[in-house]
TrEMBL record:
It comes from the Bacteria. Signal peptide: none annotated. InterPro entries: PsdUridine_s_RsuA/RluB/E/F_cat, PsdUridine_synth_cat_dom_sf, PsdUridine_synth_RsuA/RluA, PsdUridine_synth_RsuA/RluB/E/F, PsdUridine_synth_RsuA/RluB_CS, RsuA_PseudoU_synthase, S4_RNA-bd, S4_RNA-bd_sf. Gene3D superfamilies: Alpha-L RNA-binding motif (3.30.70.1560), Pseudouridine synthase I, catalytic domain, N-terminal subdomain (3.30.70.580), RNA-binding S4 domain (3.10.290.10). PANTHER family: PSEUDOURIDINE SYNTHASE, PSEUDOURIDINE SYNTHASE FAMILY PROTEIN-RELATED. The lineage of its organism: Bacteria, Bacillati, Bacillota, Bacilli, Bacillales. It comes from Paenisporosarcina antarctica. This is Pseudouridine synthase. GO terms for biological process: enzyme-directed rRNA pseudouridine synthesis.
Length: 237
């Protein structure tokens, strides 16, 4: 790959700006100051240093975010703040997108990547990727609800859901539950509870497949997936 393309892909600026970096002797290749932006380099074998820091080339980016309420799961929007707006400029440079979506008022685990293949694998209904949610429910959740969810429920538009695993954590006028589902229809968790006469007042996604939300992440914070987390996700493909 050309040196200017590699550095541009890594967020060091446009090709014109990379040329200025070379003129200022900010770029070294294998211990020698680079002079020609068109020189070809191998990201696997050549050592590239910019401003004294080694460049580790990567094509894809994989982020875990604790999505806050009030932010939409989209790459851009005219009216609302998006999850992409929460990222630093370097992360935005890779043009990541949310894998699936969480409703505007829903919190929790959201994966962002620019790897369309991985996104498809995680979202494909054929892959049966489980999604675990914690929710606060207005109304008493009962064992009868557990049974109904296990069999699948009919939503208001006539859609019959796949079975869901409902676990009651607290049952009362206000209940707390965990729900695992294999699909992600629009507002699905909320609509499933509406089908049994109850209302979701708080919703948080805790896990997606093998990936569980890092509870040390504050709302709106994000981090790169570890190699172990990424390998585990990719094994599900």
């Amino acid at each position: 790959m050309r040196l200017d393309k590699l550095l541009s892909n890594m967020g060091y600026g446009s090709r014109k700006e990379v040329k200025i970096l070379l003129k200022s002797k900010a770029v070294e290749v294998n211990g020698v100051f680079a002079k020609d932006v068109s020189m070809h380099v191998d990201s696997n074998t050549d050592q590239i240093i910019v401003f004294g820091e080694k460049v580790i080339y990567t094509e894809f980016i994989y982020l875990m975010m604790n999505k806050p309420p009030g932010v939409i799961s989209a790459t851009e929007d005219k009216y609302d703040q998006t999850v992409i707006d929460l990222l630093d400029p370097l992360a935005q440079h890779f043009k990541p997108f949310p894998v699936g979506r969480l409703d505007k008022d829903t919190e929790g685990l959201l994966i962002l990547t620019n790897n369309g293949h991985l996104s498809h694998q995680l979202l494909s209904p054929k892959k049966h990727v489980p999604k675990l949610y914690f929710a606060v429910i207005e109304g008493k959740v009962t064992e009868d609800d557990v049974k109904k969810f296990k069999e699948g429920v009919t939503l208001e538009d006539g859609y019959f859901t796949k079975p869901g695993k409902l676990t009651i954590l607290l049952s009362g006028e206000v209940s707390e539950i965990e729900l695992t589902i294999m699909e992600g229809k629009f507002h699905q968790v909320k609509r499933m509870f509406e089908s049994v006469g109850k209302k979701v007042t708080y919703l948080k996604r805790m896990s997606m497949g093998s990936l569980r939300l890092d509870e040390t992440l504050e709302l709106g914070d994000y981090r790169h997936l570890t190699e172990e987390e990424l390998e585990t996700l990719q094994k599900k493909e």
